[in-house]
DNA sequence: CTTGACACCATACGGTGTAAGGTGATGTCA
DNA sequence: TGACATCACCTTACACCGTATGGTGTCAAG
C-alpha cells in the first residue's frame, strides 16, 4: 500500500517549529487569535499532538518571548557606547513593533528563556567593557529598557496607520474635535497645534527620548568617574 | 407574598458598579481570572444580565482602564514643575503596581475614556503653565509616560516579594547560580555583586531614572529658551 | 386595564485549554 | 522472527469562556 512509505512525509513537529509557527500566527492575527487548535492545524496536526512537544500553551508563549529576544542583535563589542546603545534601542523597538504581541506577553511571562538571558548577558558585557561600573550598567539597562518597552507599548496602542503618521486617525479625531475642545481644551490644543500638523509622527519622539537618556547617562558616568578620582 | 416588597433589595447593577467590581476581582485574582460569569456572581446576578448595562467584556475592560487613570491625582497647578512631575511619576507607578493588570490592558484598549482624556488634559495644562512650549510638553509627556509605564511593566514581571526586595527569588536563583555562571557570566556577576546584595530593591532604580529624565528635560528647556532669545 | 420600559434570566452555540487514554509505526534485542 | 518499548500522533471528553436570542416579572404612566 502507498501508506507504507510516504516519501514526502510531513516534517515532524518540534518545539521550535511550533513556537515559530505560533509567532507567525500571532503576527498575522494578533495574540488573542492564537489557539492550540489553530496552531495545530497550521502544523498539519491535531491539537493534542502539540502536547507531546510542548508542556502547555504558556510554554508556547514563553518560547515566543524568547524567540523575540533572539531576534535582537547585540551591540558589537568595541564600538562607541552611545551610538551602539542608540542603535540597539532602535533595534529593540523595531522587533517589538514587528511583533506587537510581545510587549503584552512580557508582562505575564516570568520565566526567561536562554535567548532572553543571553541577551541580557550580552548587553551587560558591552556596558562593562565600555567603562560602566556594575551599578551604572544596571542603571543604564533598567532605564533604557523601561523607556524602550514603554514607548513600544504606547506606540502599538495608538491608532496609527502603518506609515507612522496619524492620517488614519485624523478623520475620527476631526469629527470629535468640537466636543473635545470643550471638555479637554489643552488636549485639543496639542492635537491641533502639533499632532495633526502634516509630517508629525509619534515615532519621532523616540529619538528625542533615547538621545536625552543617553546624554544623561554620559553625564552621570562622568560624574561618577570624577568623584572616584577625588 | 414576600416577593412583592423586598425592602432590602439588592442594589441594582450599573456600569460603574460592574466596572468597580471587575477591578476588585482583577486585583485579587489577576486579569485572566476575570470572567463575565464571575463578575455577575460577585454582583449577585446572572451573567447575561450584565449585558443590559455593558456592551461587551471589552467595554468592561475599557472602563477598568479609565478607572485606573481616574485614580491618579493631577500635578497641582502652581507648584514647581520638577518636583511636581517627580511626585506625579511616583503616583502613576504606584497605581500601576496596585493594579498590575492595567499595564497589559493599556496595550490592547485603543479607545480612551473620559478619565483618561481628562488626565492627559490636566498634565498638558500643568506643563504649559510651567513654561513648556507645546512641543516640549509633548516631548516631556511621551518620555516620562513611556518610562513610567515601561518601568511598571518590568517591575510587575519580576518575581519579587511584596517588600520589594528579591528575597523570594533569591533561593531559586541561588540554586541555579552555578549553571548561570557558566552560560551567562556577566549576568551572574551582576546578580552576585549587585542584585543579591542585601538591601537591593529594583524599585530604587525608579528614582534614578526619573531624576535623570527630569534633569535632561530641564536642560532641554533651558537650551530651547536660549536659542529662542538669540 | 393596558402598555411599554426596565432589569434581569434561561438556554444554547461555538469556541477555548487540556486531562485521560488509545493507536499504529518504528527500532531494539532475545 | 517475534516480543516489546518508544515515539509521534490521535479521539474523546470536560469544564469553562463570551455572547446571540428570546424570554419573564415588576412597575409607573396613560
How would you explain this protein's 3D organization?
2 copies of one chain form a homodimer. In chain A, 67% of the residues lie in helices and 0% in strands. Chain A is an all-alpha fold. The first copy, chain A, has a domain at 1-54: Arc Repressor Mutant, subunit A, CATH 1.10.10. Chain B binds a DNA duplex (30 and 30 nucleotides) through loops.
As a percent range, the share of helical residues of chain A equals 55-70%
Mean pLDDT of chain A: 88
Structural class of chain A, please? Answer: mainly alpha
Q: Determine the CATH topology of the domain at 1-54 in chain A.
A: Arc Repressor Mutant, subunit A
- Quaternary state of this entry equals homodimer
Q: Pick out the low-confidence regions of chain A.
A: 1-8, 161-165
Let me know the largest β-sheet of chain A. none
Amino acid at each position: 500500500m502507498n501508506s507504507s512509505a510516504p516519501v514526502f512525509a510531513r516534517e515532524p513537529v518540534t518545539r521550535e517549529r511550533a513556537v515559530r509557527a505560533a509567532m507567525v500566527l500571532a503576527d498575522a492575527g494578533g495574540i488573542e487569535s492564537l489557539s492550540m487548535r489553530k496552531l495545530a492545524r497550521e502544523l498539519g496536526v491535531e491539537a493534542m499532538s502539540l502536547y507531546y512537544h510542548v508542556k502547555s500553551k504558556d510554554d508556547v508563549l514563553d518560547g515566543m518571548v524568547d524567540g523575540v529576544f533572539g531576534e535582537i542583535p547585540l551591540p558589537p563589542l568595541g564600538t562607541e557606547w552611545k551610538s551602539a546603545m542608540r542603535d540597539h534601542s532602535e533595534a529593540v523597538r523595531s522587533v517589538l513593533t514587528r511583533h506587537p504581541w510581545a510587549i503584552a506577553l512580557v508582562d505575564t511571562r516570568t520565566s526567561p528563556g536562554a535567548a532572553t538571558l543571553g541577551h541580557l548577558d550580552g548587553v551587560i558585557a558591552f556596558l562593562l567593557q565600555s567603562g560602566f561600573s556594575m551599578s551604572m550598567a544596571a542603571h543604564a539597562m533598567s532605564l533604557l529598557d523601561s523607556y524602550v518597552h514603554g514607548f513600544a507599548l504606547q506606540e502599538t496602542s495608538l491608532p496609527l496607520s502603518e506609515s507612522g503618521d496619524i492620517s488614519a486617525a485624523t478623520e475620527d479625531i476631526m469629527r470629535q474635535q468640537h466636543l473635545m475642545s470643550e471638555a479637554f481644551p489643552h488636549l485639543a490644543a496639542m492635537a491641533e497645534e502639533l499632532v495633526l500638523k502634516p509630517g508629525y509622527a509619534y515615532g519621532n519622539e523616540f529619538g528625542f527620548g533615547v538621545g536625552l537618556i543617553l546624554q544623561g547617562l554620559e553625564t552621570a558616568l562622568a560624574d561618577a568617574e570624577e568623584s572616584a578620582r577625588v
